[in-house]
Amino acid sequence: MFRLPGGRIGVSVGDASGHGSDAADHATRTRRLVRAGLVNGWEPGIAVRRAVAQLGDTGERFATGLVATLDPTNGYLRYANAGHPAALHLEWTDPLDRVVLTALPPTGPMLVDLFAGQDAWDTAAMILHPGDALMVYTDGLIEARDAAGVEFGFDRLATEVIRCSRSRTPRHLLDGIFGAVDEHTAGCHADDRAALVVARPLIRACTFQPAGSAGARSDRA
User: Fold this and answer.
1) Which domain holds residue 82?
2) Per-residue pLDDT tens digits for 145-188
3) Beta bridge partners of 126
4) Among 9, 58, 152, 162, fewest CB within 10 Å belongs to which?
5) Where are the beta strands (DSSP E) in 72-192?
6) Which tens digit of pLDDT belongs to each residue from 111-133?
């Protein structure tokens, strides 16, 4: 998460193919290009499109990502999902105080030069109401395997999100989910796993938790 002009919040979570320094460099460059686009005031979909154009020939490399801008004064969220795992919108209903979980699917393909110069990425919009939260994560979270090779999976993730969301705090939600993944893998090797929760508080709705605090977690193996 990072600050944008006009008091908005920028959100960027992504993953790149491959391992090692080349993959890390590609991910870093992609992230910087997308972030620069948001700082310039571009819509998330346009920021992704122009980043792909600037990346040039990506060879066999590709990246996925969710890019969003959030206005903390009214909860207005605009996002583009470039082939990334579906973000999860948590919304509480009154008076039963039940959580409704909605998956936000990709709005375009992954970031690869095959789609350079095309309007391949749409920008979608939604409102984060007071008390709502948005969870974004990398595929390493749902692809974590146990000793038998069974993946943690999206369905298990959704179940754990609902179970752990009762506390309504990003830290408890993330700790509960990562705890469930650790229990599933039981010490087995796992690729990079990261998740970020953006929450709109019930009180002082214009205040957001900064990145790097209780709202984000990353486990790297």
Assistant:
1) 2-219
2) 888 889 999 999 999 888 887 766 788 888 888 899 889 988 77
3) 77
4) 162
5) 76-82, 87-93, 98-104, 124-127, 133-137
6) 888 777 788 899 999 999 888 88
Count CB atoms within 10 A of the CB of residue 97. Answer: 10
CATH number for 159? 3.60.40.10
Residue with tokens 């499109």: 49
Residue type for 96, please?
L
Number of domains, the chain: 1
Residue with tokens 């944008």: 4
In single-letter form, the type of residue at position 15 comes to D
Tally of CA atoms within 13 A in the half-sphere of 106 that contains its CB: 14
Structure tokens at 42: 């571009």
Q: Which helix (H) or strand (E) holds 193?
A: strand 193-199
